[in-house]
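>> received
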Amino acid sequence: MKHRSYVVLPLLLVMMFGLTLVPGFSMGTHHIGTSNLTIMDSTMGSLDLGPSSGPVGIQVQIIGQATTGVPNSDQSCSISSPTNPAIINNADPGQGVACVINGDGSTSGNFTGSFTVGNVPPGEYVIEVTACAGNNGCAASEGDWVQAVFTVQTSPTIEVSPYGVLPGGTVQVFGSGFSLNDNTCSITGSAVGSVISCQISDGQMTALFAVANVPSGYYELQVTGNTGDYANANVGVSGA
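>> returned
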């Protein structure tokens, strides 16, 4: 039976590779291994996810490095999940190549890519990027591979207060279930006039906006976090 160990290496990786994290990316738990699942001095690397948590349907960017010590040995890469393959969803042909090696002939195979979170239950999932020679795809956990953990959260929800308001009045919006990587948000909808505030902290959202000068009725509004997750609700506008 194969056993996998997990190592937390944020400070070591920053010191060794001079990595600079992009805002929204999380350097969390990484596993660095080879085909026999043993950490070796000749194979080091990193995998960072941006964001590292979010609901089903969100797009996740990946950046990282697989170091082999052999020039040009890694020419392609693949994204997979030993926890549940269904979390990796790249069914949309408009997304292009999911994972690309950018080593430029060096001994360090830097890679970039993305995937859309598939329809899986909330929880933690191991994401793996495997680098290999050739352009025919890579077998998971063989050759050079790195892992990180992505947390699938429940879909965000929002509610408004008060529900009915006159044009020019203010409406508060409260939400939960947003990505832990969200910190700002936007509000859109035909009933939304000026946005006074919109912020997210630890997945909790609060916002305040002034109602536009629209006829009485019910209007849909949408709150979108800075990682791309969103939720919808209706607001009622009363006549003058």
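>> The first helix runs from residue 10 to 17.
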